[in-house]
Design brief:
mainly beta; 4-stranded mixed sheet; 4-stranded antiparallel sheet; 12% helix
């Protein structure tokens, strides 16, 4: 059997090879693009350490020691997969030793603000932060808290108004957590580390917000980049 393609005559074997190569190329291109599923990201508890500061800043480290983490959060409409620009992404997490700003030494100290901040998503729905890999405390897996806000405005370096459209938490692969725990300053954390699989909050939908991590180089201590997609209902309110 003979087939003609683009003015050339091909045998069945050659045509089959061309089709196979075309399929492989399509699969390769698909694999190279991040998959975005139109699903609503599960809500998770706000937790006890939220402070309504709403400070707009990209770098939230304030000099805190730890493995550098570039965090990229993409926010999309769960109904359409369309990116949601100008969404305020509000994050907060503990330091390498499991301490939250505003709650140092077991008490409330509102004058500390490390590892907290807000960024607005760009036209592609992406908000980026410069922070450090979080540590841990008793009973919880390593995590970052996140809220998304819609409909507000920025003035004086602070996000005002609007409404909360999502509250959740982001998690880290255990393969990285184990390696991080062996590095300074994390190895000075004396709290027993809870694995994702043993964290009751993680087990209630946490796998949906497990970060995809990329190491900056051969030395983990030089930093990682973490990415995640949040599917939200922009009209939702608490």
């Amino acid at each position: 059997m003979i087939a003609t393609l683009g003015g050339a005559t091909l045998g069945v074997a050659a045509l089959g090879l061309a089709a196979t190569q075309a399929t492989a190329a399509t699969e390769h291109r698909s694999a190279a693009r991040p998959a975005v599923a139109c699903v609503l990201t599960p809500e998770q508890t706000e937790g006890p350490y939220y402070l309504d500061l709403e400070t707009v800043r990209k770098n939230i480290t304030e000099g805190k020691a730890g493995v550098p983490l570039t965090l990229r959060v993409t926010v999309v409409d769960a109904a359409t997969c369309a990116p949601l620009p100008q969404t305020a992404v509000d994050i907060w997490h503990c330091d390498a030793l499991g301490v939250y700003s505003g709650y140092v030494a077991g008490g409330s100290t509102p004058d500390t603000t490390f590892l907290r901040g807000v960024q607005l998503t760009d036209s592609a729905g992406v908000a980026e932060f410069t922070t450090v890999y979080p540590g841990w405390y008793v009973g919880r897996a390593l995590h970052i808290h996140v809220k998304t806000h819609a409909g507000g405005t920025v003035s004086g370096g602070t996000y005002h108004g609007g409404h909360v459209s999502h509250t959740g938490q982001l998690y880290f692969p255990e393969t990285y957590n184990t390696r991080i725990a062996a590095l300074s300053p994390y190895r000075n954390n004396t709290a027993t580390r809870t694995l994702n699989a043993r964290d009751g909050i993680y087990r209630n939908g946490g796998s949906a917000t497990l970060l995809t991590l990329t190491q900056a180089g051969s030395d983990l201590g030089k930093g990682v980049t973490g990415t995640v997609v949040l599917g939200v209902n922009p009209a939702a309110t608490p």
